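I hope you will forgive my troubling you with a question about protein structure. The record follows directly beneath this note:
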Amino acid sequence: MTVQRETTTQPADSSPPLLPADGQVSRPMTLTVFTSAQPTRLTKVLTLADGKLQKTAAASMQMGRAQRVEVRDMAELAQLLDSLTEAQAVAWGVCAHEAVDVVPQDAEASTPGAIARTRQHFSFPPAPGVLMLDHDGAPGEQLDAASLRQRLIDACPALASAPMLWRPSVSAGVRAPDGSPLTGITRHRLYVPVTDASRIPEAGKALVALLWAAGHGWFEVGRAGQALERTLVDAAVWQPERLDFAAPPVLKDGLTREGVAPVIHGDGAAQFDLAQIVADADTLKRAAATKKAAREAVKGSCDSQRERWATEQAPQLAARRGITPEKAREVLRRASEHRVLMGDFVLTAQDGATVSVGTVLDAPDRWHNERFADPLDPDADRRVAVVNLKSGARPYLFSHRHGGVRFELMRQSSRVQVGRGMRIATTDAVLAVLKTRGELFDFGEGTVAYVSEGKARPVSPDWLLDHMGRVCDFYSVKLRSDGEGDAVREEIPEDAPSPVARAILAKHGDRGFHKLLAVTTAPTLRTDGSILDTPGHDAASGLLYYSEHPSPPRVPNAPSPAQALEALRFLWKPVRDFPVVDDVGRGVVLHGLLTAALRASLPTAPGIGLDAPAAGTGKTLLARCMGILATGTDPAILPPADTDEETRKRLFSALREGQRVVLWDNVREPLGCAALDSFLTASTFADRILGSSETASLPNRALFIATGNNLRLTSDTCRRVLLARLDAETEKPYTRDFSFDPAQMLAAHRQQYVVAALTIIRAYIAAGRPKMASGRTASFEVWDDLVRQPLCWLSQLAAQAGVPDLPTFADPVEAAARAFEQDPETTKHSALLEAWHAVFGSVQTTVATAIRRAETDDALGVALEEIAGQRGAINSRMLGRWIERMAGRIVGGKLFVRIGIRAGTLHWAVQFARKQPGENTPKPTKPATADADGPACGGKMVGLEGFVSDGLSTGLGAAELATSDTEAF
């Protein structure tokens, strides 16, 4: 093979490609080579008919083999692409396997060890890879390779420094048997070696915006009148599982193809940093304006073509479905203009049979995951579209034509009559329609929610009114005379009635909608430990499993301990490089991962606090990793609130917005207040709706995470937020370099990581649920059963198995004891108990007496000053209220006990705690008294005993549990 090399001069003001840190040798680039077994040909077939070139599209791979391949530079890549056979193609994403069998999605579950070629398995790695740019022509002109490359550089100057491999498209340069050209070299592929392939989708979007801003974008009018977006490069190719049919075509009928050698621009051994492809705010504005103008320019043509197409297709659809031609035209218009396929729309299945959308919706078990032709281009590949009827939300069809288009599948709108005196009947009729559709849910107390994009959001009257108008055809009836004395019934279209929308929202649980507690976008477990991995609403748990994937992953029912250890290794791999200081901290991090996978099912769960001595240690990144595992997307980062009232508002707003993760970043003050404490231990959370006098109560299944430098917790928050400390032990932790991005790793394979977490819990359940950690965590009992106990079991299991490459983990509840010790309130409380006892022993006394004695006792004076000092004096009222609040809480083995009122004054005593593990009530000693005033009143013991039910007063009694790490899960 001969490869031409074209040296390009790098502009003085351009940034150089990003090379590895050592500046010498780039890491190899990874890609995937597919070899098809069925069919045996993947490439295009080119034939000649009546002197014209005919192209048979590349075949769709059914079964075969995927092999991960590394290339060191562009010359090796060119050699690899030239060596592909007609049964081979490449993809620029990779999977977790070096080599693996590939089967269709519907055969994946029944073929052990095989995978489907889907986004679930393939991703762009955070490592060197290849960005492919595909040019299929421009309107009114044909560009040669040099012109195309120059236009790309004009739009994105950073590409001037990017090394590139140019190859002609497989159908370019074809000649007839007599040598005359049939196609020129006007279709091109450019391959750019990049340092971080995970940036390809983001960089591709930015490049498209830059091209639009530079005037290199346009719209084509589709056969059904749809506006099809185009630029100099195909925006649909940046999918990790998408095949690049780069092998030479099969030539027949005496056709030949020019032997054009690949061309390498720049340094073929270098790699480009995709972070240089940036579309700033001004660029995005120009792109949007240009796109809007281009769309407006073709609007008339689209409308005209849509009407022609609908008019041409309507008679056949009307005859087939038994509807009027006008209704058929409306069905076709909605498909083209709004991407909505109504029940009468007819689809073409992969076997050529036709079926209505209504028939598909009526038989989800039969048609789910089936493939169809594109709804608007049914004469093309009949496997290009797939139906998802079990996403947990509205059914849809996704077509991969034209860059990917999603069509919603809807039944025909129901007809509902309105009129004077019919409001109740109309309300009942609308409710019946809404219940049948199953799109709305009773969410909390009196709230109706709609699920979109995996989030449950409460609906407003205006939203419900609009929704009613979309799912119902409202009409009124008018009787008029026909002029001959007979009455004629006339139906008049009407708008959706707003009183009906308000009446439905006011019914408060009398609507008959499914009850919804939370939405999950990955498999989970119910509170009894049973598996929920089938998309849709689950009445037993109140959860809605929402999945865009047509074949979501399954959770093993009874995995072995060995599988649990393997799952732990896989789950821990993305977070293994975070500098967590000790076993307890790692236990807290593992709690964060397991709880993130299970939070939708847990009524309550402790929050996670991530603490470090300095900025840049990785707290926020680790918090993002947990958030991504919980929802699949980066969590919104919120600043902490300053007051209790503001805290309640922000937490309630997060629930109303459907947020499943609440991340408070960079907390500067001690964390804790009544609103936060309530939020963490309440399965529902109520507050007044902003801008309204109404109060709503919403289910609370949100994961709470807080980060801060030297983060401290206060009072009862100490047992509600478990703290892990990170310490990079370096002066500048923000300068550290990592070999991978853990957040990108988790986002790319989130479903597998969730399954790994659930595998650990299911293995614990299969082992008989052995109780490994002492006590049961008060307020978090279900979490204790499904997260804490499995975590401690697995830790001990790993230690016993002697797995050497996993760190050790301890009971995360140990973190609560530490937090109480560092709590400023606990410190003050401890100092006062010690000083008070040193002065009075166990003799009962009053607050006023203690204040007088503080004048002569320095230790007592300092302790009282810390708690109730005010303008150089001790505020007796403030001190009394503080002691009232702390009464019964054990610190350092001592507690305040309320004795009673004598001579109108309340008396207190400090006693030693005598509660033993397993005892349910405290047994304080009877205090000595200088002036007996009746029986002593024992106070309730509060502290760690309120957190773990068997009342261990020191360290919560959890044993050190060791674990280890494993490889890929």
